[in-house]
Design brief:
It is built from nine helices and 14 strands. The protein is of the alpha/beta class. It has a five-stranded mixed barrel. A five-stranded parallel beta sheet has the order 7-6-8-9-10. The radius of gyration is 58 Å and the shape is rod-shaped.
Length: about 400
């Protein structure tokens, strides 16, 4: 037989032996679109490892895929992507020229949702076990949150909306926005955003917070934000992280571990404006309180000064009287001081005179004593005189001179 004849027999055998449709569980190792058709590669892996134990091609033709794709994305919030678990309704088809494949006629999104939920819960459990799930939430957003590091696609409409809303805010608040471009959809989301976070981490003192925003892309392609590695980076980041990735269905894990999660980029901008508005209101409130306190204090002081002004004449009169009495007393002391000094000195002189009078040698002479002088000085010791010295002896009446022998 020719190869065509053999393949034709095989085709007939498959169509005859497997005429029914089957629901099959599998993992996508590849999923791509071409000309409206979806081409998939299905695998089943060893439960104990990661080695494929079964592999097959599957195709979903355009007329079916145009209905299944929006239904699946609307229900799950995700696009078909490699690594996703799916449940497909298929029938066998063999083509003589292109070989065997399964033809997809339906898809059950609830199966995929369950699998994604299990994976998400595993990520959440892992983060909580590591003690980092709420770590970023514990950081405080500064009262003046104005230096914003933004992770987004440079061409994303959401990024433009975010910047415009900050720039044109009605209060005239000034913001400094620095973009760190990243891929925000597809398989490279995780690595791209982590790389941007690493760049910001090297300049963390230049920013008050990080905003991860996404807009203008396919809202169904959110798989990159349910990543353990990305969630760990966000949870451990040293700055508060705000997410506004435009996903109006269930939160992604990245949303869960971020400091604050909002739905859209414009909501993130509104939040930052709101923080400054609250700060401005607080400052105004304190300003009013300071003004009231100052006014009350000034009024109190005005009353106190008025009362003091009323008391000043009486206080001045009292002080004047006391001062005058003090001066009078001082004057009296000044005036009486010379008299006291003169009296004291007079008494002292009198006492000195009495002492001098008591020591007057003439009094001794009157009592019968005499004084012998040598060279005008009283002689107290006879041994100090020499033969031939002339001495004078004085009496009460008169004196005599003699020569010592």
């Amino acid at each position: 037989m020719t190869l065509l004849e053999l393949n034709t027999i095989l085709r007939s055998a498959i169509e005859t032996g497997m005429p029914d449709e089957y629901w099959v569980e599998a993992e996508l190792s590849e999923a791509r679109e071409s000309r409206g058709h979806c081409y998939m590669e299905l695998v089943e892996k060893d439960g104990a490892g990661n080695t494929p134990i079964a592999r097959a091609q599957a195709k979903c033709w355009q007329n079916t895929w145009s209905l299944l794709r929006p239904y699946f994305e609307r229900t799950t919030g995700h696009r078909l992507r490699p690594g996703m678990k799916v449940m497909l309704k298929v029938y066998a088809r063999y083509h003589e020229a292109y070989g065997f494949s399964w033809i997809v006629t339906d898809i059950d999104p609830t199966y995929t949702i369950g699998d994604m939920a299990r994976k998400r819960q595993m990520i959440i459990d892992s983060l909580k076990a590591a003690g980092v799930f709420d770590l970023n939430k514990e950081l405080a957003l500064p009262m003046f949150t104005q230096r914003i590091a933004v992770i987004s696609s440079e061409t994303a409409a959401g990024y433009g909306d975010f910047r415009n809303q900050l720039t044109d805010n009605e209060y005239g608040f000034a913001f400094s926005v620095t973009l760190f471009p990243a891929i925000m959809q597809g398989e490279r989301v995780e690595k791209s955003i982590i790389a941007a976070l690493d760049l910001i981490n090297g300049r963390d003192e230049d920013f008050d917070c990080v905003v991860i925003i996404r807009g203008g892309g396919a809202t169904s392609d959110m798989s990159g934000f349910d990543s353990l590695a990305l969630a760990e980076n966000v949870a451990n980041f040293p700055l508060p992280v705000i997410t506004g990735i435009g996903h109006d269905r269930d939160e992604s894990v990245t949303d869960m571990v971020a400091h604050t999660s909002v739905k859209t980029p414009t909501a993130a901008a509104a939040m930052l404006i709101g923080i400054l508005k609250a700060t401005a209101d607080t400052i105004d409130s304190y300003g009013e309180r300071i003004a009231r306190a100052t006014s009350n204090r000034m009024e109190t002081e005005h009353i106190r000064i008025g009362r003091l002004a009323e008391r000043i004449p009486a206080l001045f009169s009292m002080a004047k009287t006391k001062r005058e009495a003090f001066l009078d007393m001082l004057w009296m002391r000044i005036c009486s001081a010379p008299r006291h000094i003169l009296t004291a000195e007079t008494h002292r002189v009198s006492m000195l005179a009495q002492r001098a009078q008591a020591l007057d040698p003439t009094l001794l002479l009157k009592r019968g004593y005499s004084i012998t002088l040598h060279n005008g000085r009283a002689v107290r010791d006879a041994n100090k005189l020499n033969p031939g010295d002339e001495i004078e002896t004085r009496f009460e009446k008169g004196s005599v001179k003699a020569v010592v022998k």
